[in-house]
Please model this.
Amino acid sequence: MEDKIKGINTICTHVGEIEDKQFGGAISPIYTSTSYAYIDAEISRYPRYSNTPNQEYLCKKIAALEETETAMILGSGMAAISTTLLSLLSSGDHILFQNDIYGGTRNLAEAQFDRYGIEFSFTEGLEVSDFEKEIRDNTKVIYIESPSNPILKIVDIKAVAQLAKSRNILSAIDNTFATPVIQKPSTMGIDIVLHSATKYFGGHSDICAGAVATSEDLKKTIWSLSKNLGGSLSDYTVWLLERSMKTLVIRVKAQQENAMKLSKYLYDHNLTKTVYYPGLTTHENHDLAKRQMNGFGAMMSFEFDDSIDVNSFLKSLELIKPSMSLAGVESTMLVPAETSHHLLKQEDRLKQGITDNLIRFSVGIEDTEDIIQDIEQAIVKATNK
Ligand SMILES: *Cc1c(COP(=O)(O)O)cnc(C)c1O
Model:
């Protein structure tokens, strides 16, 4: 049956279900064993090998969503990213990163790669020519993130994948912000699709997990290191993640519909200076976003003009939570310079457009009228008199 499923909602609800043969329950049972029979068994199951029944079956759902041969889940987005990159890169290799990426990924390279003799560099801009220029003889991986965190920049995924392929370089993307609901990078030629499942896959701000969707071959390489590093995901969390992913499509669609409305509201507001949202026709890559995405996602960033004190604005919010992380069903806001990107040098932040006053807005599923009302009342309290 699973092979016949095509629709993305049906994939979310049904692919990767474990049938409860014992009791006929409607949902997947949870298997928490850390010990499995091995005599005459086809595979040796063990949680750290990421192949317990719940781990194995959830990967089917993720692979079906991303249209890759297979997938793997790990203990966090960074576990997925670090395990993948360290498994593909050896001493003397080079990785080329897009200049505007998640702060934790940038910090992984800056804090750790020197010790392993792994060279890394960042592109100047985001045109394909910016990537091409930076390719070295020893470049093994090109790594992109589109839309990027927190400025929502858009990269031409297909063009970068083609460039990588033509030079025999692997391409990887962090697809956390878009999710497969909005774009499937493997269908555009990308080799490795990474996720912080802590975000939209989980969607309720109560799960920390990561995922890699890729080919069987690459998974073997990544898996052999992941067994050594041991960043596996607990079966309790796997089970909760499977439950959460059933509503992935309807959550993301509702969130991006709200984001479209709220981005227009913020853009039209006389106290905002800038709004970064790919759905706005004023976004520098709006046309590209329209071409390669199915919708524009539910993340945006914006700046007020100087009449608003950002700190008191965030403290005055009553409904929107000024809190870390993103992608939950509840709306949240934060200042990246103080949180997700605080490890970067200020000069690097400014180069990316991350000013100290930039607010990142993760739009939830609430009614937009209530969100707008909350923003308005917080603005009144935060206006410098
Ligand atoms: C949060 C995030 C990560 C890291 O994921 P964790 O689950 O926190 O380890 C990576 N990439 C992006 C785009 C993120 O937002």
